[in-house]
Amino acid sequence: MLLLGESGSGKSTLLGVLKSGEKDNGKGHAREKVFTYKHEFMTGITQSRSHHVIGFDAQGKAYSQQSLMSMEKWLDNSNKLLTFIDVGGHRKAQKQLVSSLCSFFP
């Protein structure tokens, strides 16, 4: 799944909530879960693309790769795996969009 939208529309926040299973505190706590670089934490703006895989069990509970279980247990507990690509909403990110899509060999 590719998350698209204008800058500040909540793409990274949504992904952070899905990955962590925690609600956002209204101050960007959820999106900090998906930030990669120091300047993203400082500005609060996604400036790089990132890939995240979330597994879902039969009841719909989400498990991220970063949970405290081993990779084998994570795969065993997941009935469905979804790959998300988070891209910033600014103009520069539009160029990253094409390389993001091509990196998965569609």
Estimated helix fraction: 25-40%
Spatial strand arrangement across the major sheet: 1-4-2-3
Approximately what portion of the residues adopt beta-strand conformation?
A: 15-25%
Q: Please write the string of helix (H) and strand (E) elements.
A: EHHEEHEH
Structural class: alpha+beta
Cα distance spanning the termini: 12 Å
Biggest sheet overview? 4 strands, mixed
Tally the helices.
4
Shape: globular
Low-confidence stretches: none
Rg, nearest Å: 14 Å
What integer is the average pLDDT?
Answer: 78
| Strands, total number | 4
Instruction: Give the tally of structural domains.
Output: 1
Task: Give your account of this protein's structure.
Helix content is 33%, strand content 18%. The protein is an alpha+beta fold and 106 residues long. Strands 1-4-2-3 form a four-stranded mixed beta sheet, with helices on both faces. A hairpin with a 5-residue loop joins strand 2 and strand 3. The protein has one domain. It is built from four helices and four strands; from the N terminus they run E-H-H-E-E-H-E-H.
